[in-house]
Design goal:
By secondary structure, the protein is mainly α. The protein folds into 2 domains: 23-86, Orthogonal Bundle (Helix Hairpins), CATH 1.10.287; 97-198, minor pseudopilin epsh fold, CATH 3.55.40.20. It is 51% helix and 11% strand. The chain has 8 helices and 3 strands. A 3-stranded antiparallel sheet has the order 2-1-3. A hairpin with a 2-residue loop joins strand 1 (128-135) and strand 2 (138-145). Helix 2 packs across helix 3. The protein starts with 20 loop residues before the first helix and ends in a 10-residue tail after the last helix.
Length: 208
């Protein structure tokens, strides 16, 4: 069973103008699919990897310098899959009382969270990702470059914003800050964040 491009949980035009259908056409339909195609080719030629989840394949590849190509593509499949799941229809999802309390305990208030998240994204040089992760009984923000992911460090990844230029350039051109601000204000699916907190380690993929 090969890795597959995950279906979006909304119509590609539903997030406009925050993210356009054209943006999803290229980012979801082309960029993400390209990573899956290469990862599947490598896994198909490696019997020991077949039947493993995307999380397992990514961790195995990360631990083996000879599997850098596999890591780059499997890691991007995991990262992108979490990104799509991190998105909700604009304005439809707000943090529950429990999550809001956790945000306050971790960042002071939602404004503090937004400032920290946006600054982390702006500070990520080049292509990469801004992550919301579980950190004990609090939340934390971290960044990674290229295909790197906190998954390989054993972190429970709750949500992620893609700050590769292909994620936002169609709609925001070079305004990365504007894209990240919109992500925080309008696009984070906080119900998904809560699900990830309640069920750490749940796979995003059924396996290859």
């Amino acid at each position: 069973m090969a890795f597959k491009l995950p279906a979006l949980k909304f119509d590609p035009g539903a997030l406009a103008p925050a993210l356009s259908a054209e943006s999803f056409s290229f980012h979801h339909g082309k960029h993400h699919q390209a990573y899956i195609t290469v990862a599947n080719e490598i896994v198909a030629a490696t019997p020991a990897l077949q039947g493993k989840s995307i999380e397992e394949v990514t961790k195995i590849a990360a631990a083996d310098p000879a599997q850098k190509k596999l890591f780059n593509n499997a890691g991007q499949h995991f990262n992108h899959s979490l990104y799509w799941l991190s998105l909700a229809n604009p304005g439809t999802v707000k943090p529950s009382a429990a999550i809001a309390k956790l945000i306050d305990a971790s960042f002071g208030d939602f404004a503090g969270f937004k400032t920290a998240f946006v600054n982390a994204g702006i500070g990520q040089f080049g292509s990469g990702w801004v992550w919301l992760v579980a950190d004990g009984d609090k939340l934390a923000i971290t960044t990674t470059g290229n295909a790197e992911t906190p998954l390989t460090a054993g972190k429970n990844t709750l949500a992620v914003c893609d700050v590769w230029e292909h994620a936002y350039y169609i709609d925001y051109r070079n305004n990365r800050k504007g894209f990240i601000e919109t992500f925080v204000d309008q696009l984070i699916d906080w119900s998904f964040v809560e699900q990830r907190l309640e069920a750490p380690g749940q796979s995003l993929d059924t396996g290859a």
